[in-house]
Amino acid sequence: MTCRTDILAVARDLAAGHPEGTFSMQDIVQALRAQQTTHTDAQIRRHVRIIMCANSTEKGAGQFPDLEWVARGRFRLLEQPA
Fold first, then answer.
1. What average pLDDT score do residues 5-31 get?
2. DSSP string, 44-74
3. For a tag on the chain, would you pick the N or C end, based on fewer CB atoms within 10 A?
4. Beta partners for 77?
5. What is the pTM of this model?
């Protein structure tokens, strides 16, 4: 699986378990570590913060607008849960 696919799967579970549907970067990293991911923490963080974040302002941002930054360290899914 790709890093993006793995993140989306974990993000769906985390969002479902939070009343506001949000999750932190650390939540994602810890969940993927628990699954013994082959992706490095740096890869995961880059995907969440830049590649998958629709409202990121960094270079190369929003290639896949799956997430939205909503507050300091908090993200939300933009897609409909599968």
1. 96
2. HHHIIIIISBTT--STTTTSS--EEEEETTE
3. C
4. 67
5. 0.90
